[in-house]
Design a protein that fits this description.
The strands form five sheets. The protein has an eight-stranded mixed β-sheet, covered by helices on one side. It is 7% helix and 44% strand. By secondary structure, it is mostly beta strands. The chain is globular, with a radius of gyration of 19 Å. It has two helices and 20 strands. The two termini are 27 Å apart. A hairpin with a 5-residue loop joins strand 14 and strand 15. The protein folds into two domains: 84 residues, Immunoglobulin-like; 136 residues, no CATH class.
Length: 250
């Protein structure tokens, strides 16, 4: 799940955030101090860059100053520096030694997602994302909660494996960023910016250290993602995500 779920885990005293119990295994035993400057290719400071995944629990992000300077402590293994119209920069904390300089490249204007020609040809949860109906893929509703709506896309392989992708929306669903666990465990991180009738959208994908693929397309309050898929399984959902269209809000 993308939305925040609070629960007491008495045995280890952890708190689940975005459904990610396993993220604790990626954290360093003690905080690491990071400080430096975010600049462009000419060395000019970039103001107000968002820095994600700095810590577990609720301290998930911070922001560089209007002069591009950042300073914070983190236990995370990986950080992502993001700003609209700039290419996201994934950085290993172990490389941030002393005064660091993070160089970001211009990404230009985000590519618009297509407007849906007919709502009947796709499936939505009531948000603005609509996924094309695909032969061989079943759609099921996940039990409704107060502030979220979820649907799961599934398809069984000949050998009984189940492919699964979740589409959720709601006031507590979270932002456009993918989950911590996949980003921290990624080996080939790739992210592009899209525009959905004025909404900022991130299309992120990668492969984790065990060779499994994941992808997340998200905006504030809505996302579609799959995790832990083999290449042939991920290809099915990529066809759907590549065909994602937008229903403009009324």
């Amino acid at each position: 799940m993308r939305h925040c779920v609070l629960c007491a885990v008495v045995s280890i005293g952890l708190c689940m955030v975005h459904g990610q119990v396993g993220t604790v295994r990626f954290l360093s035993p003690s905080p690491i101090h990071c400080h430096g400057l975010v600049v462009d290719s000419m060395g000019v400071p970039i103001p107000d860059v968002k820095i994600d995944y700095i810590a577990p629990a609720f301290e998930r992000s911070t922001q560089a100053s209007s002069e591009g300077y950042f300073e914070f402590d983190t236990r995370a293994p990986v950080l992502v520096f993001r700003k609209p119209r700039w290419k996201s920069q994934r950085v290993r904390v172990s490389s941030l030694i002393g005064e660091s300089r993070i160089v970001m490249e211009s990404a230009g204007e985000p590519t618009p997602l297509p407007i849906c020609p007919k709502k009947a040809h796709c499936v939505t949860t009531g948000g603005i994302f609509c996924l094309p109906k695909t032969s061989g893929v079943g759609v099921g509703d996940i039990p409704y909660t107060i502030d979220t709506v979820e649907r799961q896309f599934t398809s069984a392989s000949w050998f009984g494996r189940w492919r699964s992708m979740t589409h959720g929306t709601g006031t507590a669903w979270g932002g456009p960023e993918p989950r911590d666990q996949e980003v921290w465990d990624s080996v080939e991180f790739f992210e592009t910016q899209r525009d959905a009738t004025g909404y900022f959208v991130l299309d992120s994908r990668d492969k984790t250290s065990d060779g499994k693929l994941w992808r997340s397309v998200g905006r504030d309050g809505e996302s579609v993602l799959y995790v832990g898929q083999d290449q042939e399984d991920a290809a099915l959902f990529d066809r759907m995500l590549d065909g994602l269209c937008v229903i403009p809000p009324k």
